[in-house]
Amino acid sequence: MERAKDNYKILLTEKQIQKRVKRLGKIISDDYRGKEPVIICMLKGAVYFFADLIKHIDIPVMIDFARLSSYRNGTTSGKMELIADITAEIENRDVLIVEDIVDSGKTLSYFIDLLKEKKPASIKICTFLDKKERREVDITADYIGFDIPCGFVIGYGLDYAERYREFPFLAEIIQ
Ligand code: IMP
Ligand code: MG
User: Fold this and answer.
1) CA atoms within 13 A on the CB side of 106
2) Active-site amino acid positions
3) How far apart are CA 72 and CA 33, in angstroms?
4) Using CA atoms, how far apart are residues 36 and 89, in angstroms rounded to an integer?
5) Cβ(107) to ligand 1 under 6 A?
6) In terms of DSSP H, where are the helices of the chain?
7) Fewer CB atoms near the end CB (10 Å): N or C, the chain?
8) Which mutation among 9, 80, 82, 100 tests ligand 1's pocket best, with the greatest number of atoms within 8 A of CB?
């Protein structure tokens, strides 16, 4: 099968990403020291970021995974569905959600409402990327890798029609 060749330009190199992720791991470790948070990886996009991040966290943690799907119409997020829920007991636990990118904020807003029903002690958000300009609901991430402008980005776990997740760098699709 012939591969689609979309045009893209590199926004963040592997080296830039790794430096920032290491720093975030240190900040998160210091903030949660003395606690044992449950860190939730949002599949599939956050896998790279999550795997790198937890290597730099030097406190005990529990990890878990959740997967949501939104029926997207172009770049507009539509109806949300929880495809795979966490299995960890999070009542009275500190929860840190690790996401690839916060765009409209609808995905995280939906997920956080579900998590709150399980009565965790706290919920914080760590996102690799933040596209603040596109926010539609009131969601603020507590830890942000990089702020980026509106364009569509790929790599380091992020996809365009399921492609390009394996790139170790972040690039922007050029139309
Ligand atoms: P939100 O619900 O609008 O905040 O959308 C968040 C989700 O949309 C992310 O978890 C990504 O899966 C996806 N997404 C948003 N922007 C991009 C992008 O630029 N590249 C790849 N995926 C994106
Ligand atoms: Mg995602």
Assistant:
1) 15
2) 103
3) 39
4) 13
5) yes
6) 14-31, 47-55, 106-116
7) N
8) 100
Cβ of 102 less than 6 Å from ligand 1: yes
Which tokens sit at 54?
């937890």
pTM for this entry: 0.94
Q: How far apart are CA 65 and CA 132, in angstroms?
A: 25
61-85 pLDDT, tens digit per residue, is: 999 999 998 766 555 556 889 999 9
Cα dist from 149 to 101, 129, 130, 152, whole Å: 12, 10, 8, 9
Q: Ligand 1: does its nearest atom lie under 6 Å from the Cβ of 103?
A: yes
* Neighbour-count burial for 120-137, b at 16+ CB within 10 Å, e otherwise: beebbbbbbbbbeeeeee
Q: How far apart are CA 82 and CA 107, in angstroms?
A: 10
- For 115-147, the pLDDT digits (tens) are 999 999 999 999 999 999 999 999 999 999 999
Contact 65, 83 (CB under 8 A): no
Count other Cβ atoms within 10 Å, centred on residue 30. Answer: 10
Question: Residue 41 and residue 99: Cα distance in Å, rounded?
Answer: 7
The protein residue whose alpha carbon is closest to atom 20 in ligand 1 is 153
